[in-house]
Specification:
337 residues, mainly alpha, two-stranded antiparallel sheet, two-stranded antiparallel ribbon, 8 strands, elongated
Length: 337
């Protein structure tokens, strides 16, 4: 009886040591996949992936055999989830790679929409985004998906500026339409927040007019401290029924702008030309960030009606036409007083 017990204990000890060293062996099996993106197709399993890597000479027969034995004892580690994963340089062991594929933590991709760019430029960015299913390619489709609040009046006729500029993350095989809806909802939220913070008695009738004005501010100045001054110029002009006379609106309405605005461009009667038409243009002209929205609803209190670029990203502001003409001579024509 005692002899039998010793044999059992000995066998148990040998099995324990075999299990320990077997697990240690599997835990140290190297798998040197390239850094970056890897796809786990549907129907995959740890054993099937191991055979694939064996065929690619990344693993040996004995390593795959040991993995199969290991998975018999740890069946919870045998499953993997289909998807697209990003491997880091630190994930160089077989079990590390399988743990990632088991986790379902797919690679995150990103597309950034930039304030001041047009909707078409944003669509170009989205259409070039990797691993994104392209089911939206036109402005008309963007407009169709818009959930414009009824209390804000009729739905916009243009899709311009109806996406919020930000960085949007997604996993592989996400739809562009889902990303666009997120950007639309972000825009509506930001626009509503700005509208709720508006000063009293602004010459803006609804949030869409706020978006139009904010888009002009966005295009006129990328220097944050100036945005409320730019806004004050346009608000002051609207209050006096002066034409806004802003070049970006003229450029937006041109079919083929070559980079140099001409007198003929300023005389072009297209509806966005604020040199020819009073009031706001019929729609916004670019994507709009939070700072420009807030500047539009909280403009500085000034008596300014003009500004001209200094050529360094800032502007010279003036209260009178005489002051403005002098600033044009100095900063545009280079004529010193």
């Amino acid at each position: 009886m005692l002899k039998t017990l010793k044999i059992i204990l000995l066998l148990g000890g040998l099995l324990g040591l075999s299990y320990y060293f077997g697990v240690r062996y599997v835990q140290q099996i190297p798998l040197n996949l390239p850094d970056g993106i890897h796809t786990v197709p549907p129907g995959s399993s740890a054993a099937r992936l191991c055979r694939q890597w064996q065929q690619q000479a990344l693993l040996s027969d004995s390593q795959c055999l040991m993995l199969r034995l290991y998975l018999k004892l740890h069946p919870e580690e045998a499953r993997v989830q289909q998807g697209v994963y990003r491997l880091s340089a630190e994930q160089t062991l077989l079990l590390q790679v399988l743990a990632l594929f088991r986790s379902g933590k797919e690679a995150q991709f990103a597309v950034t929409l930039i304030e001041g760019e047009t909707l078409q430029q944003s669509l170009n960015r989205i259409n070039k985004a990797e691993y994104l299913l392209q089911d939206v390619t036109t402005a008309e489709q963007v407009l169709q998906d818009l959930a414009w609040p009824e209390e804000w009046g009729g739905q916009p006729q243009s899709a311009e500026a109806l996406l919020y500029p930000d960085t949007y993350y997604y996993t592989a095989n996400s739809k562009a339409s889902a990303l666009i809806k997120r950007a639309q909802q972000a825009l509506l939220t930001e626009l509503d927040n700005a509208w709720q913070q508006r000063q009293p008695d602004l010459p803006l009738q609804n949030p869409y007019q706020l978006l139009i004005l904010a888009s002009i501010i966005e295009k006129e100045s990328s220097h944050p401290p100036e945005k409320t001054l730019v806004a004050s110029v346009f608000i002051n002009r609207l209050r006096k029924n002066m034409r806004l006379q802003t070049d970006p609106t003229v450029i937006y309405g041109l079919d083929d702008f070559n980079g140099n605005i001409t007198r003929a461009d300023l005389n072009n009667p297209h509806p966005y030309n604020t040199y020819r038409h009073h009031g706001l243009p019929p729609g916004p002209i670019s994507l709009v960030g939070r700072a420009s929205m807030l500047a539009a609803v909280q403009p500085a209190e000034t008596d300014l009606y003009y500004f001209v670029s200094k050529g360094d990203g800032t502007h010279q502001f003036s209260s009178t036409l005489e002051q403005h003409n002098a600033a044009v001579q100095k900063y545009i024509l280079g004529i010193k007083p």
